[in-house]
Amino acid sequence: MHLLGGRWRLLIASYLIDGPKRFNELRRLIPGISQRMLSLDLRALEDARLVARTVFPTVPVKVEYALTEEGRRLGKVVAVVQEFGLWLKDRDAS
Amino acid sequence: MHLLGGRWRLLIASYLIDGPKRFNELRRLIPGISQRMLSLDLRALEDARLVARTVFPTVPVKVEYALTEEGRRLGKVVAVVQEFGLWLKDRDAS
DNA sequence: CAGCATCCACGAAGATACTG
DNA sequence: CAGTATCTTCGTGGATGCTG
Questions:
Q1: How far is B42 from chain A (nearest CA, A)?
Q2: Where in this chain does the record put each HTH hxlR-type domain (chains A, B) (predicted)?
């Protein structure tokens, strides 16, 4: 829960499931997240070896974030939590 | 994530899966949780109609907490997150 | 037993500005 | 583009004491 309980981490992971994403790409995909939190959370996921950070030495720099092989285990967690969230939202709507 | 992201809620739910529990029973089962947090989190789960609170008017009072029919949906979430947590712990141990 | 009230500490998160 | 630095705010959770 300490690793996943944050407000954004599972959400970030959910976007990485369908392929690598760049920093600002993630920022756009996740409305409301601050540069700072995206940076910190990506770093935490990286430290847990669930996300890999690849730097392409172009100009300007291009940085890609992708789930590692181990990080793919997050897929199931994301799916189940997401399903639960949707059910809850739907239930409370009606 | 707002509903489940707390430190204890999923853990509390995990203990309720195998049957109703009393307040102090949960306290004993969950080392480290404070009275306050147990109370607050149970209330939150109750407000979400995932947990039902039953008061038996005995002396002293007996209060039971149980998952509702809807609350049983937490079972899958608990299982998957728990599995992930165990895997992570095991991986980092070796 | 099963709590609530109060006060306090700390980390998570937000805002803003700046940089290679 | 992809961040870091700094400051501030806010929510979560802990400690303690009290009650029907």
A1: 17
A2: 1-93
